[in-house]
Model the fold of this input.
Amino acid sequence: MDRLVETVAEDEDNVLSGKYLHGLGQKARLSLVDVLEAPRGFWGSFTGTGAATFEETVQLGAWRMAGIGPLPHILDHNPQERHPQQSHSTEDHPTSYSCTITSLTPTKVSCTAAGLSAGSYRPMVTMAGARAVVGNKVTSTTLPVASALTPQSGSINGGAVLVGNSSGFIPGYMMVVVGGAECPMLQESANTISCRLPPGIEGEAAVVVSVACSENVMAAKAFTYAAAVTPMLLSVTPSTDVVSSTTLTLDGTGFTLSGGTPEVTVGGKRCGLVSPASPTSLQCIVPALGGGKHEVVVRDAVFYMKENEVRTIASVSEDGLEVTLTEALEHTHLSVTQTLGGHTVETRAEVGLLTHNVKIQGNVGTDFSVAIEGCDTAFRPDQHATQSCFNGRHGDEIGGDQFGATVILSGKFPDLDLVMGRIEYVEVTKAGQAFQLGRYPLHFHLAGDMGGSYIRGCSIHHTYNRAVTMHATNNLLVEHNVAYNNMGHAIFTEDGVEQNSVVQYNLAVYTRTSSSLLNVDVTRSSFWVVNPNNIFRHNAAASGTHFGYWYRLDHHPSGPSTTNIYCQNTEQMGLFFNNTAHSMGRYGLWVFSNPGYHPKSDICGGRDVVAKWESFTAWHCERGAEAVSGTKLQFHNFVMLDNQQAGMEMVSVKGGFGQDDSPGIFNSLVVCHSALNSSACTSGTSGIVAPKTQIFSISNVTFVNFDEGGSAALSGCSQCRNYQGGYRAQVKGLAFENSPNKIRFQWEHETIWIDADGSLTGEPEANVVPTMGILPTDSCTQEAAFSVTKNVPGSVCRGAMKFLRVAVTNPSPSSLLGKDLVVSNDFSATHIPYLMLRIGGAGWMGLVYTGATFDFNFENANQGGSLVAGYSSDTPFTHSLIIRLMDPEDVDAYSMNLGWKTIGVFGYLRLHGQVWRRSWHKLGATVEVGTGHITLAEDPDASWLNKEVGVTTTGKEATESEVRRVVAINGATLTLDSALKFQHLGEIHTLSDGTSITLAGEVGLLSQNIAVEGITENSNGGRILVSTVFQNGKHYVGSAQVDGVEFRNMGQEGFTDITDPRYSIAFLGLDAIDDHSSYVKRSSFNVNYNVAVGLIKTLNMVVEENVIYHVLDSGIRDETGSNTYRWNLITTVFFLGTYEDRQETENLNWSGAFQLDNAPNTVLTGNVVAGAEQAGYKTLGELCEDTTRWMGNEVHNAIYGVMLWKKGGTGPLTDCCRLNNFYTWRISDTGFYVQHYASSLITNVVSVDSPLGAMQIIYEPDSLSHKFHPKTANASHSLFVGVSPSHTCEYQASKSRIMKFYGDKFFGGGVGGGNTGILLASFTSGSNSKL
Done:
């Protein structure tokens, strides 16, 4: 006992440092023999778990022991020796892995663990009622994989950051070796590594990544050391007898390769430049040094912010254009006009006035003032950078208490004109208070409408907490101001509710990172925009540490303005026009927030609309402009010059093709290198980087000087991991000037480039894709312009080829994990590797093309499969897909007897079509016979054009629903391909008491871009069965996610038994659905020969917003309950007894369009039944004491509206069942029919134009039992309208075909044949045998 406690205490410090993992694992194993001596309950108290024994504390996760977490190098490796000071960033590694049992005997268990990184582990087997068993060490031989190394080449002097995407890494235990020399780690995670490159010799150097001190080493990937991009120092004059203030002359090559001013140090101290450096020579003033030899170092100054200079004006010329300074400038400041790609481009440094005669200045406390020496190395803003020190990271400066002046303008109540601020030509300095939210230099605080207020012509410089703040303030004018040397954002909006302000003609220079406020101020921006509905025009951002303009659009406002009823990330774009940014550490323009920017036509909803950023110029930035996530985001008239990594980039955006509908880049100029910087292009520079998801448009863009190394005008799959992508980008109107490098691919299957007009390839409608073995040699040719990456060349495919993205995700069985998917055809094959981290989930992704047959095989695997078209509702399938189910010529014997034309789902089915808005609408006006156009109650989506729609019946016959094709859309009016044969109501009436009633049919969308079609004969269509099966010792449970799919000619008539439900789609025996693994949404069922959707022994499913047309007996049948049905439309429901002119007089079955009489606890919201030959809803009702789950359901033009009846049903005498929140109109017999053993409550219902509004028959106890029970029948809070203004005697006198079939079985009418609201309840001994 004592030995264990002492041993644990020895490494107390290591527990805190995170290096105790290995030691704890060893010591715990050594001490297991001692734990038996501990008194019962000791370890439960010691660990706080309350366990009785030590073994139980292990099972409760109290210890991080061998077998619970990975222990790489457990036998011969001490982590402290590898990382004595772990100063770089690491991410936690998984602490446990589940191992799926594959075989089991009394003496042996075998299992498979997925995602296991390389290293040593101890397995622990837990058995019910027994102690956990810890086994001997096992070793995973999974090799780490590094890919997409960036950069791929660089200086032989090293120093650059090497970044690799990865898999199988173990944070904290990785080692990178480049050319035989260790590359010091900067960041480690399971998926990313970065390190600082060591010096090397010219040529390729192997990059080797390993789990530290193990033999598991990945295959090398080369990095090229290139003398051509390496600055060389050849001589220093003088080199002896050098004292402080001596002018050194340095000769060499490549001093200005980066385009910035190089940094010189002597003995580790900066040597100030005398004049601007040339590529081969520079001069500097020696700092104060001690005696002895000192090293002279010339560093590449990638970042330019230290070239900002403050000077005093000595005089101004008479014309005001020439300014004489009291002191010479140290750096070159550009003013260059160039003609590039036919465009005249001006790039000029800015000059801003800092001094004004009215000054607001904070006090600088001398007690806190201290001189801070700059760090040894220059500040680097990239996300993987590690600064060499904290204070002084921006150079020499004077530190202080950072407690400056503040100006706050705020009324007690907003929007009441209680405060006005007009601040003009004022100097504000030493202002703002660090570490204090709200303590800003100029701060409009919760002011509301500030129309008439402004900040004009001011300078706000050397501030400690931002510059100009618009906090919950609207309509403010901020113009002609200069913000300089501000910590945190300079000019910004705050909560997300700020709108309609005008920010124009402002200059923000040297906006720098702040660690004394919020996280967003660490990566600050000159202009921070949190609501897009503002005007930003004619502004300039220069020489900031990170971003020029940052649109950070959260979903809801924050801070004092917090609310959930407004969504700024769906707000429409105001104006962004004629702004510039240059010399920014990161990006000129960044559009980024976690929810993304998805502008809509309405607040927090509506249709997607386009957002435009216009006329933006960015140069000398890491990236010119990037939009990370959103819908229909567009860059127009951009000019991008000499940016390091990319001109423009979008990462994950949604929309269609074309300027009206697409995310994309239009009418722009992108220059890789110009007179500003002849060496701006690198091997990784791209003009435009296309997204990693969805589709993208590039139109009328000119590319200039993409001729260096591995630079490329176009590249794809932004921020992708290895082998992700596969999406489409469409280009047209492209021009290339001195740009032979057109496209760079990273791997096979990466991106599909569609050349709409031939401006990319010379062939309209050609495709450019990575070269693959499956490409047809007669249509596809490999070309140098698209082969910038030599080992991933590109090919141009001409003709009628269309490329498609095919993905197989989340595979089962687990034996497929890690195996290649081999896709082959008549030409050859391509191997697609398995990856854990794909966009749609673990699995495979590749490209195929139409018009060819492909074989899909998993290498060395027994194959199964699943069907996927569109990963999810957010990433739908955007092409056209028809899955036809036909009678096969020959059916192989199969253990699961599914029959023909069947998709049996025992794995998973994912079908997600392209859905835009609502799938059905109400009519907005009555449509008369012979009319060829209809008006809806609201505008439909434009995607309805050329689609089939169903117009529901409002007449006596359920068959008066009509299907037409939409040939034109004008607002809410649809023009149809042929006239309608029947009247369809679309009326709203106001009754004498002011109540409004709507009598309107519906119009539902039937066409979808994914269709599952049964080839029918004798009402025998196709079907989908989602069920379970036990095979080969394993239980398979199917799942289906269906969204935006058309089911056409589905279902097989006559197979209605719930053990063999041949419905259009049936879910059988799935039990409780977890995490929405199955659903049916926004789909259409267009002609069904059985039930459309059936749920049997399946619960927790959602079925919503579907359009179901032409079904037999029922549209939806639920034999389980606890499922959710919302906003579904069911129309044209036939009775099997009279279907196709049958006369089955003995067929006494009664069904509802919603057949729910065996489905308790069902959610019913907003559903409509329009035209049923029997009942609209057949249900057992809700228990009166339960909270209602029914709301806003409707039925019209049925025999019975809502039928609460199950023949012979019985139950506890105390039960009470409720019908709640239904609307029925134009019912042929009874709106609400109740025949039930339980007491009845009808409440919150409306019945209009029905012969009988409500009838309640309550039966039992049997009269012969001589028992009594006080049962009740109630109707409350309801409205019964005998006749509406739309009612006619002709309509009432007419009889439908189904009414004639039933003869006298219906309600005979009220006195004189009129309509009746409520028939007083009957209490009977038994159920009515007449029905």
